[in-house]
Amino acid sequence: DGTWKELYVDAHDGKVRNVINFVAEHSYRVVPISYQEPTQKYETLHEPADYTTSQHGWHNFGGKNTTDTSGNNVIVYKRCHSDPNPPNIDELKCVNTTAQSSPNNAYEYTYNPDKEPTNDQNVNAARVNVFYIVNAMHDITYHYGFTENAYNFQNDNFGRGGKGEDRIQVSVQDGSGVNNANFATPPDGQPGQMRMFLWISTALLRDGALQNDIVVHEFTHGVSNRMTGGGTSRCLQTTEAGGLGEGWSDAMADIIEAKTNPIPDFTTGSYVVNMKAGSRSHPYSTDEKTNPLTYFSLATRKEVHLIGEVWATMLHELFAALVDSYGLSDNLRTDAFEMKGNVIMLHLIMDGFQLQPCNPTFTSARNGVIAAPWESHTGVRRHTHRTRGVGPTGVNLVSYHPPSVFETYDVDGANFSSSGVTPEELAKSFLAEKLGVTPESLTRRSGYTSDVASYEYFSQAINGIRVSNAVANVGIKDDKVVSYGASFVKPKNVAPQEPTLPLDRAIALAEEAIGGKWNQSPVVLEYTAGEDGTCFLTHVIQVQGISDGSWKQLFIDAHDGQIRNVVDFVADASYQVVPLEYQDPTQDPPKSYTIVKDPEDKGASPNGWYENGVLASPGTLGNNVASYKDQPLLGETTQSGPDQYHYPYDPSQEPEVKQNVDAAVVNAFYVVNAMHDLTYRYGFTEEAFNFQADNFGKGGQGGDPVLVSVQDGSGTNNANFLTLPDGQAGQMRMYLWTLTTPKRDGALENDIVVHEFTHGVSNRMTGGGTGQCLQTMEAGGMGEGWSDAMADITEAKSDPISDFTLGSYVTNKPAGIRKYPYSTDMKTNPLMYSSVKTLNEVHNIGEVWANMLHNLLADLVAKYGLGKELKPEEETGNSIALHLIMDGFALQPCNPTFISARDAIIQADLNRYDGKNKCLIWHAFAMRGLGLSAKDHVDSGDVPKGC
User: Fold this and answer.
1) Which of 39, 446, 869, 890 would bridge 768 by S-S if both were Cys, CB 3.0 to 4.6 A apart?
2) Would the pTM of this model clear 0.90, i.e. be above it?
3) Does the N-terminal peptide bond of residue 896 adopt cis geometry, omega within 30 degrees of 0?
4) 217 marked ligand binding residue
5) Do domains 26-210 and 386-400+493-568 have the same CATH topology?
6) pLDDT tens digits for range 525-536
7) Catalytic residue among 511, 756, 778, 847
8) What is the fold, at CATH topology level, of the domain defined by 26-210?
């Protein structure tokens, strides 16, 4: 139900002695923030607070819940005296706030335009609207950098920097003026004061507190004054700088209220003046006839609001251009790391505040916007960040993964003062020298040796405690370091190493955040590196969702209980089956749905597919896979005859009929086992952290077969794979697809099953078996790309390689579920490396990577031909492609980028094939913009000399 409470339980008799309710749902009757005033939209909103930025919600002050328009960020009132210059409002004895309209946290007062705004009902409506808008702006701007450290307005800063005790005080229907509003911004640590006045331009007066663009305008004065010059609030004091301040405030309202693409003309104040043109001399417009203002206009404008119109017009031009190029997000708060025009615009303005000098001019403010490190919010943030909705309320958490470096050293290896004999010793010696750290600060996570190279994985350690998101990996061949990746940090602050938050409290916080239960996995203490340079001591807790199938690892601060990071582990005999090289039953009948005899590879599955380490199973349960509907051990499909699993699928019947359920369960069992055996031959073995119940003493941790839930009830029109660390079972959920009549079963479309299984491979092999190293937006996108590429490789049947589509059976559309077919033809698939800059979702990013790998596969097959059985010892194009991808997993760093993953594939070719495909690989990537000079999602078609 999304509740979140802190209970004080008697340590002797177990009685509840006190309760703090963190997420009691509040409702507000308001003008939604993306609208201007009540005649556009006026409705009731439920719990709009963002608990990641307002950690105790909007109604908590001094550790106690409030029942009026006051809280940690703002207090809204109507003064009951006429003193125009009151002292600190918290010291006043006479303050009229608005109380709940009902005792269930409702603030629902409907504004009546037929009565004067001074009517009690209307006063309450105005106070509630301002309370909502100022809190919403606090939460939005917090995501864009206006945090405690950046001198924001909060009574309690929760130990995150800056000075507290400075929430905003808003006086509604203030008696000190009319037809205006203002905002007083003292230095950090002193409350901001907003005065909202009545407007007397109409027969019935109108209340500025109900015109959102005016409230947003005034709030933004606080932001620009605090962030320019470092919290002193003294750095927008010249006439030109003050004019810029007015312009930023209008521009913020323009951004917040944008709802259509292209961006329309924008006016401010139209409600209170009752004129469509609003309160400015011109609408903000890209049309020079509608708004002729230019920089030259400053020569005749001497007043700050008039100067501000020029600046706001320029910002409107930039805003419209960005939205035209990147589109429009409909939620600035949750999409703060997405590549959308309004998101970019807000980042540029907010970052520019911090970069520009005290008392900026138009020129220096312009330069601040240009210098704003937007790539740190898009390209680089894709490399380091991921935003996820967590728990039943969908609270958004941003996970942070320090930037990684990745270097390859060809066949000659790295030049360093080596000491050590074993791969572990050699790697540790190299990392100590390369990273400038002591051997004691390196903790080995795992390592293994394949047929061509050794791979060692380390974590950074501080005070003997592992740093969870600071990792390193080293590739070794012939006693030489041939590659390394690292994301180590140099912390500015390190939390005390002894926890003060009890473990049971940390577990309870994790469970409440997810709406799930701790799964009894061991809880360890690890440091977690934060973006601000702090290393937080955290309890690392795995929690599984009760109803949604989620499984996350939360890093709960061991001192204050905050969520510091989050890892999402879910990435959405004879058999009558769809053979692995086919896509679905309809592709080429009867060959595409037939009886396959004894498909097990005893080299990869020495006891076959039915021995689970204890006994032989008569059903779809074995050492590698358990395939079932509803429940493991109860929902498996048993043999149709001795050693036979022959259940013909009837496409005229719904997939839920028993015969069709059995057919789907058997097909999933076959495909996952076949993929286990295939990838085993290409390096995904026990010591490389594969999925098996029994590892036969060959390394790694057993007890982790893949559990495949067919026709899983937790979703439709999708599938997902949960990749936990080595030793915990992988979980694949295959759903029904409801786009056709009858419905279709995803477990009968092999490319979907292969796609999901490959999530397990890429997540386990990248980073040394932790399942935690494809967590950034870009790395997660490549995870989707590798999964599509694996299906492309396993289903390749023609030379030259043909275009490939995914999901065409379940959707009953030849084009499938991707935007373009994977193709070498630029007209058929135009995706380039630079396309990533405008993509905001992992599957879309994955399409770019998968198409690059399709081009590489096509080039390799053109040179070496196509092997029919994907034998790893053969030098055929598809076998080479699969080797390069699988070897690349082990070489690449934790949370790789397109560039480091490309370099890992090039190094893999050097390790396995002595680099004879180097130029072919470079040309394949360069054709899609990922050439030698490519960087930060800017295309390059160049290749190294000699290619």
Assistant:
1) 446
2) no
3) no
4) no
5) no
6) 999 998 888 999
7) 756
8) Elastase; domain 1 (3.10.170)
